[in-house]
Amino acid sequence: MSVDVTASDTITPEVLPWQLETVKQLVQLKQNQRLPHAILIQMSTRMDSRNFGWYLVTALLCEDSDQPGVPCGSCQSCSLMDANNYPDFTFTTLEENDKTHKLNKDIKIDQIRRLIHQLSLTSNLKGGKLALIYPAEKMNQSAANSLLKTLEEPADQATLILITHNAGKLPITIRSRCQNMLVGNPSADDAEDWLKQQGVTVEQVKQYLLIAQRDAQQALKLSNQEFIKDLDQFRSRMQEYLGNQLDVTSLLGSMKNMDPSTFRLLVRNLLSETIHACLKQPLDDSTKHQIIKLIDLTKHSNFILQTEENNLNFQLQLEDVLISFKQIQNRGNDNASTEPGYLVT
Ligand SMILES: [Zn+2]
What we know:
This protein is α/β, with parallel strands linked by helices. The protein has helices at residues 20-31, 50-61, 76-82, 109-120, 141-152, 172-175, 188-197, 202-211, 216-224, 227-242, 248-253, 260-279, 285-304, 311-336, and strands at residues 3-4, 38-43, 89-92, 129-133, 158-164, 179-183.
């Protein structure tokens, strides 16, 4: 098996209750010999989804399952998958750079060529050839172009599964040649039940789900990180900043131990809470103008705060967003003589 994953990674196959339906559907298609040769699965969660991919492949290959979509865990295929040694399966993901030991930013053409070669070989076992690419949106352009030829002329008995968090970043030519599927987030009730089972307190469940925009896996991660404490600290520092008791450098300095992804989430919440607070006010021209500005700033910050690899740049971009935010808030307050829109709970 060709596995472009670092040897130290161990993958425990597991699937969340709301993800099982997609696995069942695909297992059913395979049993009926109607499995498409290329499947693109978009995940709504922002969390790492390689476990889902691994589980799906294990379920597709299992020879002795007595529950639809649930691998038995003990047949030859399950054992080989568990040992990361299934001969007809290829997993392609971001590789570690030999020198820096950091993950590459993209999936490269050499990796896709290896995958195509593997798919062209005769199967060792009877399950057919299977390849998984995750996160598919990280394929660079030449890698995607190379894959396209395989999608146009698929090898016999070969199935290619692409899993992505952002299908929009994949070329339309790839998307259109795959069977597209979506693994969404759970309903609010299912998410709440699941989070309670994971030990999140009843009082915090709704709050974390709101912050994580119904992504239950991310809500759990935030709960484990005690994100609410960070949020409370950020809110009180922000109040001081808006009241001119703190400048932007001191504001960021007071939270310097926070990692960029947490900061990005805090800023996203700050902006969305402020927009919601504005929407509760009488919608005069001033408030409308403020909302438009805030939406523009949200789009801008979503775009520019993706640069966590470069800390200095991230810090500057963050200052830029917070300065713009304060200007919008001050202008809104001057015009409307209302309380600051932000700082609602
Ligand atoms: Zn099995």
